[in-house]
Amino acid sequence: MKNSIQLSQKSTINAFLLFFIIHTAQIGVGIHGFQRIIYQDAKHDAWISVLLAGIATHIIAFIMIKTLEMYSSNDLYGIHQDVFGKWIGNFFNIIYILYCSAAFFSVLRNYIEVVQTWVFPNVNTWFLAATLLLIVMYTFTGGLRVIVGVSFFSLILSIWLLPMLVYPLKFMEPRSLLPILEADMSGILKGVQSMTFTIIGFEVLNVIYPFIKDKNNVRKYVHLGLLATTFIYVSVMLVSITYFSGDLLTKTIWATLSLFSIIKLPFVERFEYIAVCFWMLIILPNLCLYVWAAYRGTIRLVNVNATKFVWIFSLSIFIASLVVKNRTQINMVNNYFGQVAFYVIFVYPIFLYVVAVVKRKFKSHKEQIE
Amino acid sequence: MFNKKFKLSSAKKQPAAEGEKSKENEEKTKSTISPLKSVFIKSVGNAVHNSSDLKVKSIHPNLTLIYIDNLVDGEVLKKHIIHDLLGNTSESPENVLSVLSIPNAKLSGEIDGAITGMMDGTVLIHVEGYSQIVLANIPTKESRALSTPENESQVIGSQVGFNESLTTNISLVRRYIKNPDLCNEEIKVGERSNTAVSMLYIKGIASEEMINMLRQRITDIKIDSLLDSSILEQLIDDNSLSIFPQMLLTERPDKLCSELLNGKLGVIVDGSTMAIVAPHSFLEFFQSQEDINLRWQIATFARLLRFSAVVLSIFLTPLYVAALTFHYEVIPQTLLVTLSESRSLVPFPPLFEALLLELIIELLREAGIRLPSKVGQTIGIVGGIVIGTAAVQAGITSNILIIIVALGALASFTTPSYMMGNVIRIIRFPLILLAGYWGFYGIMFGFCFIIIHLLRQTSLGSPYTAPFYPPRVKDWRDSIIRMPLPFTFKRPSNTRPEDEDKYEPGPVNPEKNEQKVE
């Protein structure tokens, strides 16, 4: 392929780091309050929706890798240009860049909202946005090695939050899970669709694929990463359904944080203060990977260096974060973004794969005739 | 336009070429040695600006010794050189050389090298009528006796530290590693000071790529003088803007040798008691040489203690400030009562209180270094007890903060490397400020910043955060924990060693295996 990416040995990364990349790209702000949204659709079978959504990510990732394997070392942007030609391909690229920017923005804005609600009601939005963007810029300018390093440390250093879920187990009521499959199928499937905003992030694979050193191991580690995410989401969902009563869950916006707030250690109470601040480390890989994905696409369209790009990008996100002011607006952004993301992540890759296969068949057929 | 440029450049070139030629001629007349005694003496005198310690001694009318008085060993000069030459009557440099009982004497026909050598304790022996002279190197052996390392003391292990003499230091290293593969490359650094810098590595273990990189960095230095290895370290490390040192400075020969055997490179500077070790990852700064000497359980415990001490030292005071300024709710009620009781008399906000106390501790430390050792202890007691107690009684600070600050200071001194210990202490101040203004959010901001900063650093081109990132699980055996020796038979891959195995991993428990055979 003429536009494939050639890399030196030093700028590639090991396949097993994909586990960390995929996992940390998925887990972010969504986990704070996905329970309520799914519960509205699927009631106490919400965990089945989460499980199905997890399975869906496996299928989509499978198709994504199939598509990427057709082009031995190329990313989604290059594949677009190859499959659809220069103009239409670049149009799709722009959409994908905008999608990444929107994802970046929605993660940032949601986190700022959580910090303002739970810890610092009086701190301005612009300040929180500026500090977060500053850290993202510092990471981004370090290159892919540093970004992957951040996702690695993000997982390693926050793994201790998971056992904290044991505390609410004391107050759980397992019977609230029964009867299983009471909700009808349409409700559960609607729940799967609502899961989109929380479970996306693994699409970064589309962009990072050419940077992997041992490509034959990609499949294994991507699926392991997805499995870990699904496991965490399902377990959080199960704990939430059994801990909260149904009515309460529909009224709790950030159910996971409410779960944290009952944790009591000898020297710490109101654990959610620490958890919310600590979440900065968890959303950092999200932000960095999205800005990096957007950058990889942008350099296919215009000639821009990394520093210049990240400044322009951060400035526009900064302004956008000031425009979106209150909870209703943020909810609106989340809903719209969730719907768009559903089509970009769960529908489009299948379409792309079919088109790429057809095109390849057509091409080889043509060559045979010639 | 193109023509014009060409003309300009060619016009510029010509005078430069002429200048070079004339320079060459000058050098030729300068560098040859005059067979005439008086001319030779004069030219040497001019070269050292007729320094008053330049001594000229004639043994025969034809045989002249020139040397700098303070640099040569008078005893050797009298007993060997003058004694040997007095009985000698034949008059040629070759003959003089054969008569001398000095091992490192040689012939030379070049004056520049001779004068540089004279600055290093060489006697120039001139024979009338010959344009070659004999150089006999007999420098004074003025050096401190070997003593215990002051800054890196340890209970178990060798008790010898480097001193200021390069030859002694290299002989110390050679005494530990009796191997012809131990290479010693000498490089002169400093246009005026002409300091000898020795680069040490073990051929066949150290990576060639790193050797070339380090050699390149040292030879690229353009500086007029180099007085200590800590200056060289700042000149050759990867990012001199960072607060974190990227190469280790150690005064322990055993530490240097064990790192050389791990595939690292060492640099010793003449006149400095510290050797540079590179590459060195962040984690390795917290490992002591003693950890290998102790049994693995105890060493692991010591390491865990040290790492938790570092975390405690950095984050304890900021957490106190953040919790008391913004997040009262986080503190359990029983603890909150004690805390607010002890703070009830304090008129200052926690941020100011903490900064004040941290500053006092830093003052005590700095004063302790500058004061002569006899007074130092007294000041420690005065500072610790009098100021501490008085500050609480006067109602300036709370008891609990004193405990926290003292604990943090104590913990910061557990870091085996002095350079890294400094960083751990200083890094606390920005974090306290962040905590005082933005609470836990500020601390988290600082924490993320530090992690990203560490991720961005390299040490001689290899990642600073190894072995954690990039994750090299095999190297974790000797990281925060220390596994027993039968498990740590591989060299750390961070040094990219040419030979990975330290030794053949034997059976973990040989006795048991023998019993099985029976």
Automatic annotation (TrEMBL), chain A:
GO cellular component, one term: membrane
InterPro entries associated with the record: Spore_GerAB
UniProt-annotated location(s): Membrane
GO BP: spore germination
Main location group: membrane
TM regions (residue ranges): 12-34, 46-67, 87-107, 119-140, 146-167, 188-209, 221-241, 273-294, 306-324, 336-358
Domain of life from the UniProt record: Bacteria
Family recorded in the similarity comment: Belongs to the amino acid-polyamine-organocation (APC) superfamily. Spore germination protein (SGP) (TC 2.A.3.9) family.
Name the record gives this protein: Spore germination protein YndE
Gene: yndE_1
TrEMBL record, chain B:
UniProt xrefs under InterPro entries: Spore_Ger, UPF0353/GerABKA_families
Chain ranges passing through the membrane: 304-326, 376-394, 400-419, 431-455
Keywords: Membrane, Transmembrane, Transmembrane helix
GO cellular component, one term: membrane
Region entry Disordered, spans: 1-30, 488-518
PANTHER family referenced in this protein's UniProt entry, alphabetically: LEUCINE ZIPPER PROTEIN 4 (PTHR22550:SF5), SPORE GERMINATION PROTEIN (PTHR22550)
Name of the protein described by the UniProt record: Spore germination protein A1
Source species: Filibacter tadaridae
Gene that this polypeptide is encoded by: gerAA_1
